[in-house]
């Protein structure tokens, strides 16, 4: 989830954690240039795979990360500052076209730092539903991706920890569906605001027959209703793949090598005896291409550069649609027209309200004394309002069965127990009001099951140029219909008496279909969850990029392990799915080489 907050507070380097000596800065510091595995991208998935593969002391693993260290990056560490990572030194700063309906250029943030996007996201922890994962299993013909079969990987990833304020969490989640021995911390809110309390109160008051019924744990596989949000936070600080999977107990493994500021340009192939293509080399540069280096992987290259850079690197390496590649003078080594296609993203917009409250994000924006106090409290005790992201509780709702749109479209959701729309409750809505000093909240309907698909392609043949991204939002009439109904659904919920005395006035008044359409087209943006650009398909299919074991189709020793392999968006934020993919992929890779 993305909150375009405009906060201007000078950040001092408040933390003095020594950066680990295992993180190498210069290619020359590498003691070798041949490894068993080379992982491209030290992001959410890449660090997970690197951790698991180095459990075997005989496996030497090199992680190549284009960005720098995550240590001491305050905007990344303090949960409430997550929105300030956008456009900062740890963002790739991609831009994307929205397509003809919205006809705008939007920013598309991605983490340019160790930990990748897990070092800059807003930490919401949602797994998607049972039906989401069962659909992945169904469309790939691999039962290994089903909800029941991914549960061991959920547990390997998740370490459920107490909230920062240590409060009793009984009734806020279902412990039986969580893991307590994994690596990445997940927790409940450590500081409740008025909005959070009232949302839960309203939901409980509406009863079990309501579309807004209270759901004890939205990560149980069935999420419909409204419940307490869970976040990847540990003791009041962000838990990312860099702080967890590359944490102090792992980073000094002698067989784990991490090179920062290492921009991968291409994966290099060699012809093998049986005439297949084997990818064993990785080309990188630390000076924007002036000097190129090569490292080799004797077992596999793992491509974990994320949904934008993974297809870019594949295409630069000659894997993609031959027409696209030949137009740029790139020789096609493996024809895979699906590379970069089927890009799918959640679209979200915010309905704001001016509220009668004194604990929204606005307070610290208008009062620098308060902001300094909050930061001091966080710095000294890791408690207070900065221990959570600005959005916590979440709702999951479906369009009614008799909605007119189903006369024209088959339901794109994976099943009757999965939401079409998520409603995010955010302790700030001020970016759309005339009065930036009013206390505001945001209620943000998010389209979980878009039909529209966009694409990522190369813009130039220079691997250091950004690719061309077209999100093609609202290409399908279904998507606009669902978002419109999402706005109505959110307003039905906010009309509950639990919000009396709290809501002062709506900031967005668009009501009719036309007004809502216009508002959505000019205000909606991405939730930063792109997937699909190296999608899985069944073994033997003539479409798709990777087989269900994540091996790139038709070539040897190259796997993609990141969010890009998902063929459909999950009905949830995408980091937990990415960790689950990486945990399962690690087992598949280990099995190939045992
Ligand atoms: C602002 C924002 C908020 C978000 N909020 C949430 C949220 O609250 N909850 C949630 O579940 N999800 C959220 N997401 C989405 C989620 O974080 C991502 O889906 C997930 O982290 C993607 O993981 P990945 O491994 O696919 O890619 P990444 O984590 O992005 O990893 C890719 C890595 O590859 C590196 N790389 C790229 N190109 C190269 C190259 N050429 N050479 C070397 N390295 C390279 C990158 O620097 C990066 O470290 C958010 C995303 C953003 C941007
Ligand atoms: C993104 O923009 C910020 C702010 O201008 C800058 O500091 C950062 O270096 C940019 N990121 C990249 C990868 O260039
Ligand atoms: C609502 O459902 C929950 C869980 O099934 C149950 O514990 C609770 O008693 C129900 N509440 C009412 C008012 O029926
Ligand atoms: C988190 O805080 C608790 C309580 O202070 C402490 O016991 C625990 O060790 C901390 N965890 C980590 C990983 O720092
Ligand atoms: C996109 O995905 C669908 C399956 O959802 C598939 O049929 C189609 O071939 C894919 N398109 C491309 C260009 O790969
Ligand atoms: C904030 O509002 C609450 C009631 O909503 C009130 O009890 C409290 O005194 C207020 N705090 C300040 C500092 O105004
Ligand atoms: C700003 O915050 C400080 C610290 O909480 C408080 O004492 C002060 O009254 C606030 N100022 C205003 C104008 O609200
Ligand atoms: C944060 O804590 C460190 C010591 O733990 C201290 O040096 C620094 O000044 C503190 N910063 C603030 C703003 O309190
Ligand atoms: C759908 O059904 C409900 C009652 O179940 C009814 O109130 C509503 O008008 C129907 N909507 C449409 C579009 O038919
Ligand atoms: C694509 O390349 C053209 C020409 O070099 C440039 O003007 C444009 O900004 C590039 N687009 C992107 C998205 O980088
Ligand atoms: C929306 O309506 C409220 C009154 O209900 C009004 O205070 C506000 O100014 C209106 N907003 C806009 C943008 O017209």
UniProtKB/TrEMBL annotation:
<feature type="active site" description="Proton donor">
    <location>
        <position position="529"/>
    </location>
</feature>
<dbReference type="Pfam" id="PF00732">
    <property type="entry name" value="GMC_oxred_N"/>
</dbReference>
<dbReference type="InterPro" id="IPR036188">
    <property type="entry name" value="FAD/NAD-bd_sf"/>
</dbReference>
<feature type="active site" description="Proton acceptor">
    <location>
        <position position="573"/>
    </location>
</feature>
<keyword id="KW-0732">Signal</keyword>
<comment type="similarity">
    <text>Belongs to the GMC oxidoreductase family.</text>
</comment>
<feature type="signal peptide">
    <location>
        <begin position="1"/>
        <end position="21"/>
    </location>
</feature>
<dbReference type="InterPro" id="IPR012132">
    <property type="entry name" value="GMC_OxRdtase"/>
</dbReference>
<feature type="binding site">
    <location>
        <begin position="121"/>
        <end position="124"/>
    </location>
    <ligand>
        <name>FAD</name>
    </ligand>
</feature>
<feature type="binding site">
    <location>
        <position position="117"/>
    </location>
    <ligand>
        <name>FAD</name>
    </ligand>
</feature>
<keyword id="KW-0285">Flavoprotein</keyword>
<keyword id="KW-0274">FAD</keyword>
<feature type="binding site">
    <location>
        <position position="113"/>
    </location>
    <ligand>
        <name>FAD</name>
    </ligand>
</feature>
<dbReference type="InterPro" id="IPR007867">
    <property type="entry name" value="GMC_OxRtase_C"/>
</dbReference>
<feature type="binding site">
    <location>
        <position position="264"/>
    </location>
    <ligand>
        <name>FAD</name>
    </ligand>
</feature>
<feature type="domain" description="Glucose-methanol-choline oxidoreductase N-terminal">
    <location>
        <begin position="306"/>
        <end position="320"/>
    </location>
</feature>
<dbReference type="GO" id="GO:0016614">
    <property type="term" value="F:oxidoreductase activity, acting on CH-OH group of donors"/>
</dbReference>
<dbReference type="GO" id="GO:0050660">
    <property type="term" value="F:flavin adenine dinucleotide binding"/>
</dbReference>
<protein>
    <recommendedName>
        <fullName>Glucose-methanol-choline oxidoreductase N-terminal domain-containing protein</fullName>
    </recommendedName>
</protein>
<dbReference type="Pfam" id="PF05199">
    <property type="entry name" value="GMC_oxred_C"/>
</dbReference>
<dbReference type="InterPro" id="IPR000172">
    <property type="entry name" value="GMC_OxRdtase_N"/>
</dbReference>
